[in-house]
Amino acid sequence: LNRYNVAPLATDGERVYAGRKGDVIAVNAASGEIVHKLATKYAPVRVALAGGVLVSAGWESSESKGLWDAWMTKTAIGAVQAFDTKTGQPKLSHDWAAEHVLISDDCVFLLVQAGHPAQSQDVVAVELNTGKERWRVKHSAIGPDCDLQLNVAGLGVLVVGRTKAKVISVLNAADGKVLWEVASGEKPWVHLIDGLLWHRNKKHEPKTGKVASTFRSSGGPTMCTPSIFVGDYVADGRSCTYFDLATPQDPKAQDRALKISYSGARGGCIVGAVPANGMFYTAQNWCRCAPAQ
Questions:
Q1: DSSP labels, 26-55
Q2: Mean of the pLDDT values across residues 180-206?
Q3: What's the rounded Cα separation, in Å, for the pair 197 and 188?
Q4: Backbone dihedral region for residue 75 (phi beyond 0: left; psi -120 to 50: alpha; all else: beta)
Q5: Cα–Cα distance between 266 and 3 in angstroms, integer?
Q6: Which residue, 36, 123, 169, 205, is the most exposed by fewest CB within 10 angstroms?
């Protein structure tokens, strides 16, 4: 029961891409017709979609140490493959076991890992259209432990969480060098919204770390049900709580709820809630933490 264990699934609005054993299928969202079968070396574990390119990462084998742990690659054997979504043709392939996959602009960012617990970790940037490796940074250049997770990429930065150290390291997306760091405490996740990096209750300038402003609620993911930012709101699905992020200077702030708790709106385990069409969508769920859901 971990937010990273969501099934490999993505959509561009016209097609839905779903991982199966041996391939990723591209399905027409309106008709259900399978348009492409994108052959993969291993069963897809992570997928990312941007700019008409689908990236799939699969592993030879995986394991989890307990109920609350994320699935991780058991060995250094795996494959990262990318496909043109229109034609279904391959664009790149590397024999790496990538634990995390992010896309920003024309670059794919990968956390390449060996073993579980990890014996080594490399953060790798690969050009999306050519497959050429742009840069590679070993975990030791960021911190002493193999405790990295890729959080978010964009606005010229790649944000890396260090789970043991409880630190967030912000890397330059162009060369992988650490630009600045901040203590994360128990909330290592960040968001890039409106040109700023949001963490805890502060909004930072992405390249410098300078605090531009603050906001009312820190939000952030929980172990088994991710939180999400939607407009002025944070939906914390696990605790059934919704926060209004309107700033105190907002004249409408006094007329709007700052915190709403509603147990009937608890997001499903692992998946949480998906915002679309002015509503939240979630799967049917039975959770031992909230059996009355």
A1: EEETTT--EEEEEE-SS-EEEEEEETTEEE
A2: 87
A3: 12
A4: beta
A5: 15
A6: 205
Per DSSP, 116 falls in state T
Whether the CB-CB separation of 253 and 235 falls below 8 Å is answered with: no
Preceding peptide of 275 cis, ω within 30°:
no
Instruction: List CB contacts of 231: < 8 A, sequence separation 6 or more.
Output: none
Q: Are 206 and 197 in contact (CB under 8 A)?
A: yes
Residue of 290, 230, 289, 233 lying closest to 264 (CA atoms): 290
Please spell the DSSP secondary structure of 63-84, one letter per residue: E-SSTTSPPEESSS-EEEEEEE
Spatial distance between the Cα atoms of 167 and 209, rounded to a whole number of angstroms: 13
* Mean predicted lDDT score pLDDT of the chain: 87
Taking CA atoms, 131 is separated from 69, 92, 139, 174, 206, in Å, by 31, 5, 22, 16, 26
pTM of the entire predicted model: 0.89
Rounded Cα distance between 214 and 56, Å, is: 36
Residue 98 confidence (pLDDT):
97
For 171, the token pair is 């890397």
